[in-house]
Protein backbone atom coordinates (compact mmCIF):
# COMPACT_ATOMS: atom_id res chain seq x y z
CA UNK A 1 0.00 0.00 0.00
CA UNK A 2 1.52 3.33 -1.07
CA UNK A 3 0.63 6.08 1.36
CA UNK A 4 1.38 9.23 -0.58
CA UNK A 5 0.20 12.17 1.49
CA UNK A 6 -0.15 13.39 5.07
CA UNK A 7 -3.78 12.27 5.20
CA UNK A 8 -2.79 8.66 4.69
CA UNK A 9 -4.41 8.52 1.27
CA UNK A 10 -3.18 6.09 -1.35
CA UNK A 11 -3.07 5.92 -5.12
CA UNK A 12 -6.47 4.23 -5.05
CA UNK A 13 -7.97 7.12 -3.09
CA UNK A 14 -6.59 9.69 -5.51
CA UNK A 15 -7.51 7.76 -8.65
CA UNK A 16 -11.04 7.42 -7.33
CA UNK A 17 -11.22 11.11 -6.44
CA UNK A 18 -10.35 11.98 -10.05
CA UNK A 19 -12.76 9.40 -11.52
CA UNK A 20 -9.89 7.57 -13.22
CA UNK A 21 -11.72 4.33 -13.94
CA UNK A 22 -8.91 2.57 -15.81
CA UNK A 23 -6.36 3.47 -13.15
CA UNK A 24 -8.67 2.13 -10.45
CA UNK A 25 -9.06 -1.12 -12.40
CA UNK A 26 -5.30 -1.39 -12.88
CA UNK A 27 -4.54 -0.84 -9.19
CA UNK A 28 -7.07 -3.45 -8.13
CA UNK A 29 -5.90 -5.99 -10.70
CA UNK A 30 -2.37 -5.45 -9.39
CA UNK A 31 -3.47 -6.64 -5.97
CA UNK A 32 -4.05 -3.26 -4.36
CA UNK A 33 -6.14 -3.46 -1.17
CA UNK A 34 -9.62 -2.20 -2.07
CA UNK A 35 -10.32 -1.49 1.60
CA UNK A 36 -7.20 0.55 2.30
CA UNK A 37 -8.20 3.44 4.53
CA UNK A 38 -6.83 6.92 5.13
CA UNK A 39 -6.03 8.21 8.61
CA UNK A 40 -9.66 9.24 8.99
CA UNK A 41 -10.85 5.77 8.00
CA UNK A 42 -12.01 6.86 4.56
CA UNK A 43 -11.88 4.23 1.81
CA UNK A 44 -12.13 4.59 -1.94
CA UNK A 45 -15.78 3.54 -1.69
CA UNK A 46 -16.48 6.55 0.55
CA UNK A 47 -15.00 8.81 -2.10
CA UNK A 48 -16.86 7.25 -5.01
CA UNK A 49 -20.17 7.38 -3.13
CA UNK A 50 -19.64 11.01 -2.17
CA UNK A 51 -18.69 12.07 -5.69
CA UNK A 52 -21.46 10.12 -7.41
CA UNK A 53 -19.12 7.89 -9.42
CA UNK A 54 -21.47 5.00 -10.14
CA UNK A 55 -19.08 2.99 -12.29
CA UNK A 56 -16.27 3.11 -9.75
CA UNK A 57 -18.68 2.16 -6.96
CA UNK A 58 -19.55 -0.97 -8.94
CA UNK A 59 -15.88 -1.77 -9.58
CA UNK A 60 -14.92 -1.37 -5.94
CA UNK A 61 -17.79 -3.51 -4.71
CA UNK A 62 -16.98 -6.23 -7.23
CA UNK A 63 -13.42 -6.15 -5.89
CA UNK A 64 -14.65 -6.77 -2.34
CA UNK A 65 -15.05 -3.28 -0.90
CA UNK A 66 -16.69 -3.29 2.53
CA UNK A 67 -20.06 -1.64 2.05
CA UNK A 68 -20.74 -0.71 5.69
CA UNK A 69 -17.33 0.67 6.57
CA UNK A 70 -17.57 3.85 8.66
CA UNK A 71 -14.94 6.55 8.80
CA UNK A 72 -13.21 7.24 12.10
CA UNK A 73 -14.02 10.92 12.47
CA UNK A 74 -17.79 11.00 11.91
CA UNK A 75 -18.85 7.38 11.57
CA UNK A 76 -20.09 8.04 8.05
CA UNK A 77 -20.71 5.14 5.67
CA UNK A 78 -20.80 5.20 1.86
CA UNK A 79 -24.61 5.02 2.07
CA UNK A 80 -24.72 8.19 4.19
CA UNK A 81 -22.64 9.95 1.55
CA UNK A 82 -24.74 8.69 -1.36
CA UNK A 83 -27.91 9.78 0.48
CA UNK A 84 -26.34 13.19 1.12
CA UNK A 85 -25.77 13.63 -2.60
CA UNK A 86 -29.07 12.11 -3.65
CA UNK A 87 -27.27 9.64 -5.92
CA UNK A 88 -30.17 7.23 -6.26
CA UNK A 89 -28.37 4.73 -8.52
CA UNK A 90 -25.51 4.44 -6.04
CA UNK A 91 -27.92 4.19 -3.12
CA UNK A 92 -29.66 1.27 -4.82
CA UNK A 93 -26.35 -0.44 -5.65
CA UNK A 94 -25.15 -0.11 -2.06
CA UNK A 95 -28.45 -1.42 -0.70
CA UNK A 96 -28.31 -4.36 -3.11
CA UNK A 97 -24.83 -5.00 -1.74
CA UNK A 98 -26.32 -5.24 1.77
CA UNK A 99 -25.63 -1.73 3.00
CA UNK A 100 -27.23 -1.20 6.41
CA UNK A 101 -29.99 1.39 5.98
CA UNK A 102 -30.29 1.71 9.76
CA UNK A 103 -26.63 2.45 10.41
CA UNK A 104 -26.11 5.72 12.25
CA UNK A 105 -23.14 8.04 12.17
CA UNK A 106 -21.64 9.63 15.28
CA UNK A 107 -24.41 12.23 15.25
CA UNK A 108 -26.94 9.38 15.28
CA UNK A 109 -28.15 10.18 11.79
CA UNK A 110 -29.33 7.47 9.42
CA UNK A 111 -28.94 7.74 5.64
CA UNK A 112 -32.66 8.60 5.53
CA UNK A 113 -32.14 11.56 7.84
CA UNK A 114 -29.26 12.79 5.69
CA UNK A 115 -31.46 12.57 2.59
CA UNK A 116 -34.19 14.58 4.32
CA UNK A 117 -31.73 17.25 5.46
CA UNK A 118 -30.45 17.64 1.91
CA UNK A 119 -33.92 17.65 0.29
CA UNK A 120 -33.20 14.52 -1.76
CA UNK A 121 -36.82 13.63 -2.49
CA UNK A 122 -36.19 10.55 -4.63
CA UNK A 123 -33.71 9.17 -2.12
CA UNK A 124 -36.13 9.76 0.75
CA UNK A 125 -38.90 7.99 -1.13
CA UNK A 126 -36.70 5.01 -1.96
CA UNK A 127 -35.25 4.62 1.53
CA UNK A 128 -38.74 4.78 3.01
CA UNK A 129 -39.86 2.03 0.67
CA UNK A 130 -37.26 -0.34 2.11
CA UNK A 131 -38.60 -0.34 5.66
CA UNK A 132 -36.41 -1.07 8.68
CA UNK A 133 -36.30 -3.45 11.59
CA UNK A 134 -38.88 -2.33 14.14
CA UNK A 135 -36.98 -4.11 16.90
CA UNK A 136 -33.72 -2.25 16.39
CA UNK A 137 -33.05 0.68 18.68
CA UNK A 138 -29.70 2.37 18.25
CA UNK A 139 -28.29 3.98 21.36
CA UNK A 140 -25.24 6.07 22.08
CA UNK A 141 -23.84 3.78 24.74
CA UNK A 142 -20.88 6.04 25.39
CA UNK A 143 -23.30 8.69 26.63
CA UNK A 144 -25.06 6.23 28.90
CA UNK A 145 -28.31 7.55 27.47
CA UNK A 146 -31.70 5.97 27.97
CA UNK A 147 -33.50 5.36 24.68
CA UNK A 148 -36.38 7.62 25.75
CA UNK A 149 -34.26 10.54 26.96
CA UNK A 150 -32.64 13.21 24.84
CA UNK A 151 -28.99 14.03 25.42
CA UNK A 152 -28.46 17.52 26.80
CA UNK A 153 -25.65 18.37 24.42
CA UNK A 154 -26.19 20.24 21.18
CA UNK A 155 -26.26 17.26 18.87
CA UNK A 156 -28.48 14.49 17.61
CA UNK A 157 -29.58 12.18 20.39
CA UNK A 158 -30.02 8.44 20.93
CA UNK A 159 -33.79 8.78 21.05
CA UNK A 160 -35.15 6.43 18.41
CA UNK A 161 -38.70 5.75 17.52
CA UNK A 162 -40.40 2.55 16.45
CA UNK A 163 -43.33 3.87 14.42
CA UNK A 164 -46.44 2.07 13.23
CA UNK A 165 -45.15 1.31 9.75
CA UNK A 166 -41.98 -0.13 11.15
CA UNK A 167 -39.01 2.16 11.08
CA UNK A 168 -36.86 3.97 13.58
CA UNK A 169 -36.94 7.73 13.59
CA UNK A 170 -34.12 9.82 14.97
CA UNK A 171 -34.83 13.15 16.59
CA UNK A 172 -32.74 16.11 17.59
CA UNK A 173 -31.99 17.14 21.14
CA UNK A 174 -35.19 19.20 21.27
CA UNK A 175 -37.33 16.34 19.98
CA UNK A 176 -37.32 17.46 16.37
CA UNK A 177 -38.55 14.91 13.86
CA UNK A 178 -37.92 14.49 10.15
CA UNK A 179 -41.15 16.42 9.54
CA UNK A 180 -39.88 19.33 11.63
CA UNK A 181 -36.57 19.26 9.78
CA UNK A 182 -38.22 19.33 6.36
CA UNK A 183 -40.70 22.05 7.34
CA UNK A 184 -37.94 24.18 8.85
CA UNK A 185 -35.88 23.95 5.66
CA UNK A 186 -38.86 24.68 3.40
CA UNK A 187 -38.69 21.33 1.64
CA UNK A 188 -42.33 21.08 0.54
CA UNK A 189 -42.00 17.89 -1.48
CA UNK A 190 -40.49 16.05 1.46
CA UNK A 191 -43.10 17.43 3.86
CA UNK A 192 -45.71 16.09 1.45
CA UNK A 193 -43.97 12.72 1.28
CA UNK A 194 -43.49 12.44 5.04
CA UNK A 195 -47.11 13.26 5.75
CA UNK A 196 -48.25 10.66 3.23
CA UNK A 197 -46.12 8.13 5.09
CA UNK A 198 -48.32 8.51 8.15
CA UNK A 199 -46.90 7.34 11.46
CA UNK A 200 -43.35 7.33 10.20
CA UNK A 201 -42.93 10.99 11.05
CA UNK A 202 -44.23 10.80 14.59
CA UNK A 203 -42.29 10.81 17.83
CA UNK A 204 -43.58 8.21 20.28
CA UNK A 205 -42.22 6.30 23.23
CA UNK A 206 -42.84 2.77 24.40
CA UNK A 207 -45.90 3.81 26.40
CA UNK A 208 -47.57 5.76 23.63
CA UNK A 209 -49.38 4.65 20.52
CA UNK A 210 -50.26 7.56 18.34
CA UNK A 211 -50.80 8.07 14.66
CA UNK A 212 -49.15 10.65 12.49
CA UNK A 213 -49.84 14.21 13.49
CA UNK A 214 -48.97 17.48 11.86
CA UNK A 215 -49.22 18.93 15.36
CA UNK A 216 -46.44 16.84 16.89
CA UNK A 217 -44.42 19.25 19.03
CA UNK A 218 -40.80 19.47 20.07
CA UNK A 219 -39.71 19.81 23.69
CA UNK A 220 -40.04 23.58 23.30
CA UNK A 221 -43.60 22.95 22.04
CA UNK A 222 -42.90 24.23 18.56
CA UNK A 223 -44.83 22.50 15.79
CA UNK A 224 -44.04 22.17 12.09
CA UNK A 225 -46.44 25.08 11.53
CA UNK A 226 -44.35 27.32 13.80
CA UNK A 227 -41.21 26.39 11.88
CA UNK A 228 -42.80 26.84 8.46
CA UNK A 229 -44.18 30.24 9.50
CA UNK A 230 -40.76 31.23 10.81
CA UNK A 231 -39.21 30.58 7.39
CA UNK A 232 -42.03 32.23 5.45
CA UNK A 233 -42.90 29.11 3.51
CA UNK A 234 -46.39 29.89 2.17
CA UNK A 235 -46.69 26.53 0.46
CA UNK A 236 -45.85 24.49 3.54
CA UNK A 237 -47.98 26.62 5.86
CA UNK A 238 -50.94 26.13 3.53
CA UNK A 239 -50.30 22.41 3.28
CA UNK A 240 -50.01 21.91 7.02
CA UNK A 241 -53.23 23.82 7.64
CA UNK A 242 -55.03 21.71 5.05
CA UNK A 243 -53.78 18.63 6.88
CA UNK A 244 -55.25 19.84 10.15
CA UNK A 245 -52.42 21.76 11.79
CA UNK A 246 -53.63 23.68 14.84
CA UNK A 247 -53.39 27.32 13.81
CA UNK A 248 -53.49 28.41 17.46
CA UNK A 249 -50.88 25.99 18.80
CA UNK A 250 -48.50 27.80 21.15
CA UNK A 251 -44.87 27.12 21.93
CA UNK A 252 -43.27 27.23 25.38
CA UNK A 253 -43.34 31.03 25.25
CA UNK A 254 -47.03 31.00 24.32
CA UNK A 255 -46.29 32.13 20.77
CA UNK A 256 -48.45 31.05 17.85
CA UNK A 257 -47.33 30.70 14.25
CA UNK A 258 -48.70 34.22 13.78
CA UNK A 259 -46.13 35.60 16.21
CA UNK A 260 -43.37 33.97 14.18
CA UNK A 261 -44.65 35.23 10.82
CA UNK A 262 -45.40 38.74 12.10
CA UNK A 263 -41.95 39.06 13.63
CA UNK A 264 -40.32 38.21 10.29
CA UNK A 265 -42.79 40.36 8.30
CA UNK A 266 -43.97 37.41 6.22
CA UNK A 267 -47.21 39.07 5.15
CA UNK A 268 -48.46 36.25 2.92
CA UNK A 269 -48.10 33.79 5.76
CA UNK A 270 -49.82 36.23 8.13
CA UNK A 271 -52.71 36.50 5.67
CA UNK A 272 -53.09 32.73 5.41
CA UNK A 273 -53.04 32.30 9.18
CA UNK A 274 -55.68 35.02 9.61
CA UNK A 275 -57.86 33.39 6.98
CA UNK A 276 -57.61 30.17 8.96
CA UNK A 277 -58.83 31.74 12.19
CA UNK A 278 -55.66 32.36 14.15
CA UNK A 279 -56.26 34.20 17.41
CA UNK A 280 -54.59 37.60 17.11
CA UNK A 281 -54.94 38.32 20.82
CA UNK A 282 -52.66 35.58 22.15
CA UNK A 283 -50.00 37.16 24.39
CA UNK A 284 -46.52 35.69 24.44
CA UNK A 285 -45.01 35.09 27.86
CA UNK A 286 -41.55 36.36 27.06
CA UNK A 287 -42.38 39.87 25.88
CA UNK A 288 -46.03 40.26 26.80
CA UNK A 289 -47.02 41.06 23.23
CA UNK A 290 -49.60 39.79 20.78
CA UNK A 291 -48.92 39.45 17.07
CA UNK A 292 -50.42 42.88 16.33
CA UNK A 293 -47.89 44.51 18.68
CA UNK A 294 -45.07 42.65 16.96
CA UNK A 295 -46.20 43.66 13.48
CA UNK A 296 -46.64 47.32 14.43
TrEMBL record:
It comes from the Eukaryota. The keyword Transferase does not apply. ANK repeats lie at residues 7-39, 40-72, 74-106, 107-139, 174-206, 220-252, 253-285. SUPFAM superfamilies: Ankyrin repeat (SSF48403). This is Ankyrin repeat domain containing protein. Keywords: ANK repeat, Repeat. The keyword Oxidoreductase does not apply.
Amino acid sequence: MDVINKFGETSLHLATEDDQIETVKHLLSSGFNVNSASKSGKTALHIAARKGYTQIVKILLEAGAKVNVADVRKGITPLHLAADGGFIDIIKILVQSEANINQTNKDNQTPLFRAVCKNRVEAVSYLYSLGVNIDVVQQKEELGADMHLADTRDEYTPLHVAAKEGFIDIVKVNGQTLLHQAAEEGFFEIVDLLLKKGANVNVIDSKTDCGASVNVATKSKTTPLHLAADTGSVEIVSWLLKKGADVNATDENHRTALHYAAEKKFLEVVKILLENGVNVNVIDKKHGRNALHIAA
